[in-house]
Structure formats: C-alpha cells, structure tokens
Amino acid sequence: MKLLCATAEGDRRAFNELYRLTSGKMYAVCLQLLQRKDLAEEALQEAYVRVWHNACDYHSDKGSVVVWMVSIARYRALDILRSAAYRREGRESDLEQSDEHTPEDALFDQRDRVRIDECMDTLEDGQRQMIQLAYFRGLTHAELTEHTGSPLGTIKSWIRRGLQKLKRCLEP
To answer: Which parts of the sequence belong to the RNA polymerase sigma-70 region domain (predicted)?
Structure first.
C-alpha cells in the first residue's frame, strides 16, 4: 500500500520496487490468458503504465493492491484477446491446425466470450473478484482466504451466488 501511495505521488523508486515485487505474478496472469510470451509482455507493460497513471484511483475497500493490479493486467490481457489482430491470427492458426474449424465456429466462440464478459460485468464486485481469482488464476478457496483476508464462508458464498447469477444470465 505504501509503494502504491508513493507511486501515486510520482515516486519512480517506489514504482520500481512495486514492479519488482509484483511483476512475476502479473506476468503469469497475462501469460496464462494469452498463451504467448510476446502478447503477455505487451499486456504487462500496458498494465504497469495504467498502474502508474491510475495509482491514485486505488481504493482499499475494493481489495488488496495486488488484486487491484492483477485485475488491471487481466483486463488488458482480455482486451488483447478481443482485438481484431489477435482473433485473425488465432483463426488462421486454428484453421491450419484443424480443417473442421469453420468461420461460423469462430463467430460462435467470440459471441460466447462476449456474452460471458457481459454477464461477468453484472456481478457484484466480491462475486466477480472471487470468480476471476478462482477460475482465471486458479486459486483455491484456502488461497482466496489468505489472498483477500475474507472468511472462507464468505468466499464460498460469493462464488456460489456469482456462479448462479452467471448461469441465469447465460441461459437462453
């Protein structure tokens, strides 16, 4: 928290230390989502630019500093996944790997991703954060408890209610 506050005041040394302490975790999140080192590095760089410019926007009631920063990296990685260039590269790669993958399949895959993102945006902050950490980062319930400082029962409730809401949102 101290490093982020100092970063918000323009302290480059604090920002360098914040980067040193958090870049491995944030890179892992980007790489897990993007599956390509070059794109993960791009997402990481852009995430840290946003952290630098938006450090003063952090509010401790929305989670820890690391959770806030990881969510910035995750959203940047998702933006890259959604970009036209990445979709085009992905479709070409998929078509080379499988003759069964049609343009219609790619369109349905993209629609599903957009629908899931839209439904995720309808969740309460706690629900969305727990689902992202559990399903996109692979944290266990015990790790979520340690990571967020929230009780296990609360975490399980957020996940259960969030998944129920997602299911209702995604049903036709």
So the answer is: 18-84, 119-167
CA-to-CA separations, 139 to 89, 145, 146, in angstroms, rounded: 30, 10, 10
Position 103 scores a pLDDT of 58
**The token pair that represents 53 in the structure block:** 């410019």
- Every domain of the chain and the residues it spans: 1-82, 122-172
Find out whether 87 and 106 touch, Cβ atoms under 8 Å. Answer: yes
Regarding the domain delimited by 122-172, which CATH topology (the fold level of the hierarchy) does it fall under?
Answer: Arc Repressor Mutant, subunit A (1.10.10)
The gap from C-alpha 21 to its chain's centroid, in whole angstroms, comes to: 18
Q: 1-82 adopts what CATH topology?
A: Rna Polymerase Sigma Factor; Chain: A (1.10.1740)
Measured CA distances, 165 to 51, 117, 168 (Å): 30, 13, 5
Lowest-confidence pick of 51-60, 107-116, 117-126: 107-116
**C-alpha to C-alpha distance for 100 and 80, rounded to whole angstroms:** 25
Q: Provide CB contacts within 8 A for 76, sequence distance 6+.
A: 30, 43, 46, 47, 50
Least confident stretch, 15-24, 36-45, 56-65: 56-65
| CA–CA distance, 120 with 133 (Å, rounded to integer) | 13
The rounded mean pLDDT for the chain is 82
Q: What is the model's pLDDT at position 167? A: 87
